[in-house]
Amino acid sequence: MITRPVKYAWQHVRYVPLWSMLTLSRRRSFETRSAALGRAVGGVMRWFPIARRRFNREVKRVFPEMTRDERNSLRRQMGKNMGQTLFEIYHNAEFHTRLNRFHVSGPGLDAIEAAQAAGKGAIIVSGHFGQWEAVRASLKARGIEVGAVYRRQSNRHYQRRLLAGIEAGGLPIMETGRVGTKTLVRHLRAGGVVAILLDEKHPDGAKLPFLGHPALTSLAAAQLALKYDLPMVPAYGTRIGDGSDFEVNYEAPIAHSDAETMTQTFNDSLSERIRAHPDQWYWLLNRWKGV
């Protein structure tokens, strides 16, 4: 049995490399620091066996025709993108000031603004794709603060930094679970907007196709949209250019029908984005584990 002091010590050891890199590079420009962390995480993805095996397993499932060299290249690029994403979330307040980097489009934006003008809330659904915080940043720039649902991290150091970064992007922040769900419902009923990442495995979810394979997917977003008559808008912040600019696209709201059909529509939407830009999705989610 691992004692609490040993557990905390191990958490600290795991956090030191990231803390060191963030501290040593803090005098450099935002883009330079972001790119440096991206290269570091890309290196981890290249050489760390556990991450490499998990990545290869998932990519082979979706892209069985991909060659080994193509997978290696994709793994490094995904690591680079995720390193940049992590840096931007940790420095979310500064990230939100870089409005010239966000190129916003799509009919879903009008739907969200119309709902707000009518005193109603809205639900934004996305995934661990590109830089999802760019979606909240682009709305905050328009005077719409967007709350978020997040999953607590087991490492207390990562948890502290991650939560602070997400809170800088907009409030309220709601942890997954019963208490967070109650806060989420109150926020939506009061006319608030919330962003939910729907691409994580949900033990009590419905078994729906995602990237061509059954995956346990939460129906909560669609159920709330139906219950409170709210728009459910898929939105994505896709990296473009050198990776420091973002095409923030708000798709048309998903038509209200039933929760499974609406959630499947989102799965299809995200799948299309991933197939077009596979390096921008986080392949280490164990999305199909146990199904």
Written overview of the protein:
Helix 2 (30-47) packs across helix 4 and helix 10 (220-227) crosses helix 11 (259-276). The chain is α/β, with parallel strands linked by helices and 291 residues long. It has helices spanning 4-24, 30-47, 49-62, 68-90, 92-95, 107-117, 133-140, 156-168, 178-189, 220-227, 259-276, and strands at 102-105, 122-126, 146-150, 173-175, 193-197, 206-210, 213-217, 232-240, 245-250. The chain starts with a helix and ends in a 15-residue tail after the last helix. Strands 1-9-8-2-5-3-4 form a seven-stranded mixed β-sheet, sandwiched between helices. It has a two-stranded antiparallel sheet with strand order 6-7. 52% of the residues lie in helices and 16% in strands. The chain folds into two domains: 4-93, no CATH class; 101-280, no CATH class. Its main location: membrane. It is found in: Cell inner membrane. Pfam families: Lip_A_acyltrans (PF03279).
In short:
This protein is α/β, with parallel strands linked by helices and 291 residues long. It has eleven helices and nine strands. A seven-stranded mixed beta sheet has the order 1-9-8-2-5-3-4, sandwiched between helices. A two-stranded antiparallel sheet has the order 6-7.
Explain the layout of strands and helices.
Blueprint: H1 4-24, H2 30-47, H3 49-62, H4 68-90, H5 92-95, E1 102-105, H6 107-117, E2 122-126, H7 133-140, E3 146-150, H8 156-168, E4 173-175, H9 178-189, E5 193-197, E6 206-210, E7 213-217, H10 220-227, E8 232-240, E9 245-250, H11 259-276
Helix pairs in contact: 2-4, 10-11
